[in-house]
Design brief:
The radius of gyration is 20 Å and the shape is elongated. The chain has 356 residues and is an alpha/beta fold. The chain folds into 2 domains: 165 residues, Rossmann fold, CATH 3.40.50.2300; 132 residues, Response regulator (Rossmann fold), CATH 3.40.50.2300.
Length: 356
């Protein structure tokens, strides 16, 4: 159910989340060198209970990932792999090369046929896998969903749990980041991804509703869709910037869009003049921020999605189902030029650049 979060509290929420992360000690704390694996934290207290380790050691887990090209999914993979190694599980990952449920479906079918002890699924469709999920349930194989939510999956009882982000909140936080940078009668535009995609449409709604409530004098150009293509986002952004020299700000709803928008702004030498806020925190988006092109990124927590997914499988195997949080919505974190070099951002928020 949609519940408006007071926008004045959004930034504070993100900072509290980051502050909580900062309290963790270990190799990736603020006193340690930068890690190449975002989201990773480790300390002696992270060592599993010997009884739990004895109960789960050697169990098999298969991650069916969204794709093997997007740093977001690489971060899910990194988190799940690290947590699986902690519990000495037999872990493997499979994914299509592009985000396409028709290519993902046979991978899921094959994984179920292997009869692993658990499956982590980042579904490329919210409707196409119902029969597969039922087959897994009939075989007693627990499936945990990542990069999805209880609502998106219509509360499918064959998911053990869901780990994802609140799309409305992502948009609200983007609006909160944009508002101080533009005047009360500014002209903005939204570059969206795929028409009809529930998640990105909610990201747009969170943004536009918040802007309308806080600054009703701000106007918007018609939304355009880049079909999840960096080159299209670049072209569309260039067209809007050339046709609207008074355009003050651009909101990019995902990482591919953010890269395309950033490249267009950079190519027209409009860095700083046109403010850009984008979702996610890919290394390429961070570079655009360092170049003065992107002013704020609203980062999700894909690494922790992977960690929490493995943790819930462990709880399932060890008879602790009552401790499983079925709907696990991880709060976004704002990245800006002021904090992007902080160790807690570099180590825990910026997405993985390479396969783990």
């Amino acid at each position: 159910m949609y519940r408006r979060v007071p926008v004045g509290a959004v930034i504070a929420t993100a900072l509290l989340v980051l502050a909580a992360c900062s309290s963790t000690t270990g190799p990736n704390s603020s006193t340690a060198p930068q890690s190449s694996t975002p989201g990773a934290t480790a300390s002696a207290s992270d060592a599993p209970d010997p009884a739990v380790l004895a109960a789960v050691k050697g169990k098999t887990v298969v991650l069916i990932n969204g794709d093997n090209a997007d740093a977001f999914f690489l971060s899910i993979w990194a988190g799940a792999k690290a947590e699986a190694e902690k519990y000495q599980l037999k872990f493997s990952e499979q994914a299509p090369n592009t985000y396409d449920y028709t290519l993902q479906a046979p991978l899921l079918v094959d994984a179920i046929a292997q009869k692993p002890d658990g499956i982590i699924l980042s579904p490329d469709s919210h409707t196409a896998f119902a029969a597969n999920l039922q087959t897994a349930a009939d075989m007693g194989i627990p499936i945990v969903g990542v990069n999805t939510s209880q609502t998106s999956e219509n509360d499918n009882p064959n998911y053990l749990s869901f780990h994802g982000s609140d799309s409305i909140l992502l948009g609200q936080m983007a609006a909160e980041a944009m508002l101080p940078m533009v005047d009360a009668k500014a002209k903005l535009t939204v570059i969206n991804s795929v028409p009809g995609n529930v998640g990105t449409m909610k990201r747009e709604k969170g943004f536009t509703d918040t802007i309308a409530a806080k600054a009703p004098g701000i106007t918007f150009l018609p939304t355009v869709f880049d079909n999840n293509d960096v080159a299209q986002a670049n072209s569309m952004t260039r067209d809007q910037l050339i046709a609207n020299p008074d355009l003050a700000g651009i909101y990019a709803v995902d990482a591919f869009t953010g890269q395309g928008v950033g490249n267009a702004v950079k190519g027209l030498n409009l860095q700083g003049k046109v403010k850009v806020v984008a979702i996610d925190a890919l290394p390429s988006e961070i570079q655009l921020m360092k170049d003065g092109i992107i002013q704020a990124l609203i980062a999700q927590q894909p690494y922790q999605m992977g960690v929490h997914a493995v943790d819930n499988l462990v709880k399932y195997w060890t008879g602790k189902k009552d401790q499983i949080v079925r709907s696990d919505i991880l709060p976004p974190i704002i990245v800006t030029p002021a904090n992007m070099n902080d160790p807690d951002i570099m180590n825990k928020v910026i997405y993985a650049a390479n396969k783990p």
